[in-house]
Amino acid sequence: MSFTVWAPGQDRVRVRVDGADHDMTLRDGDWWYSDATGTDYAFLLGEDDEPLPDPRSRRQPEGVHGPSRVYDHSSFAWTDQGWTGRALPGGVLYELHVGTFTEGGTFDSAIEKLDHLVELGITFVEVMPVNAFDGTAGWGYDGVLWGAVHEPYGGPDGFKRFVDACHRRGLAVVLDVVYNHLGPSGAYLDRFGPYFAGQNDWGPGLNLDGEGSDEVRRYVIDNALGWLRDFHVDALRLDAVHALADRRATHLLEELAVEVEALSTALRRPLTLIAESDLNDPKLVTPREAHGYGLHAQWSDDLHHALHVALSGETSGYYADFAAPGALARTLREVFFHAGTWSSFRGRTHGRPVDTRTVPGHRFLAYLQNHDQIGNRATGDRLSATVSPGLLACGAAIVFCSPYTPMIFMGEEWAASTPWQFFASFPDPSLAEAVRTGRRREFARHGWGEAEVPDPIDPATVERSRLRWAEPAEPGHREMLELYRSLIALRRERPSLSDPFLDHLEVRAEGSWLVLYRGTLRLAVNLGPEPVTVPLDGEASQVLLSWGEASASGTTATLPPESFTLVELLD
């Protein structure tokens, strides 16, 4: 077989295959080649005898510092030949972390819980990063070999079994990928060529627009296409795209969107790109015909922040601006709260308005919780740790009755009692201590004592973060799970609830209550501690769903504290 590697500027490159070294030949613009036979291999650059894993490795059975292993994608026996994919509009996403979703922490153990997601009404399973990172346990955002699947989860065949099992159940798969930085251990790319350019908040960033960047961009795009083509993944969630430093006339994201669209056409199934962005810029999800990047959707943190403040009352840090009167109603109508307006957290104006006449709501994901908004809290506490069941129910009703694409974080559907904390398992003691110390110092600046911040390197932190699958059948949890099932079912059955056109949405709010107008349906919500009576602007025909003994009669809804009712009006 032929081994290849891009290594510009090197005088000599060898490949070590099953312990034997072979000289490589330079050709085709800084690419090196060698024909050899074997399974495990690594590259040696110049006169250096340190073997390095393949930057485009497909498998790392001995971890990110060990040799790469030859892997043949065609050897897997797929059973999803009848799978035609899913388009994002009308979908419901479920974000999970393979290592803590089940007790086993593997793809195979996760497969055992997929029927729960089907019964819940989920259509897209969003999997946090599964690429190779140093250690056994971690969130996955410190990956360094983007094409190799983390071995403790089950390796590449394990991930394929998971995707195949999802497709058998009608579930599309979204994979979280990280192209904005590399992790602190095992990032050998810069030894091979000009892959890196500067640093961001999380680590070395990629050279996307400097000398030698054509191959670096190709590295990213080929990786993305590989997940979609070779692993049959249906969508990619692109982590923190605002940290992609690219000054080219055609941004990497637009280039990626073009190639993904071409692949989608060839595969004859929808392929979706979902961005996480802090820019509040609708250009990301604006079609290329309208001079946008052509991505299909993005996370909507502003809506999360507005909901979080309305439910919890927390106003520290970036939550401060969302305590303004009417912030939740405004964000529901306009997508971005900061849309060319002042952001006190940033100390400047921020964002750009969304044209609600032309941009559909399904291009923005709405959620009460996600891995960041839980795990980046000092103790990893979920909303259910501090917010009453009534307020949780109200928040869920707003999300599922909104024009946006709903997403829930694993366990949210039953108000899981387990936290979801930050954890890592770097084998290098000095790096492990740096992570531990850095985490504690970060939260000490916000008033937390060291003893209150969980040790991210302690295996007990991972264990605390695992879901308890006995909980869905227990009182309190069981009722919340039934509510989520009912809300998702109603969203599917009533077209007006999933209507994505933002100019069809009206929100009325006063004090502690708000009403969402969804065609002939009204969602009336009371987030306050006192009962209220709210106008429905129409005659109630029937109550479809309620929480907390809320009711409707005539042209008004009667809402006890922390309750909601979803009402259908007479035509």
Task: Describe the overall structure.
Belongs to the glycosyl hydrolase 13 family. It catalyses: hydrolysis of (1->4)-alpha-D-glucosidic linkage in 4-alpha-D-[(1->4)-alpha-D-glucanosyl]n trehalose to yield trehalose and (1->4)-alpha-D-glucan. Its EC number is 3.2.1.141. The radius of gyration is 25 Å and the shape is globular. α8 (about 300-310) runs antiparallel to α9 and α11 packs parallel to α14. The protein is of the alpha/beta class. The protein folds into 3 domains: about 5-50, no CATH class; about 95-180 and about 215-420 and about 470-490, Alpha-Beta Barrel (TIM Barrel); about 500-570, Golgi alpha-mannosidase II (Immunoglobulin-like), CATH 2.60.40. It is built from 15 helices and 29 strands. The relative contact order is 0.09. It is about 25% helix and about 20% strand. The model has no long low-confidence stretch (mean pLDDT about 95). The longest helix has 18 residues, at about 215-230.
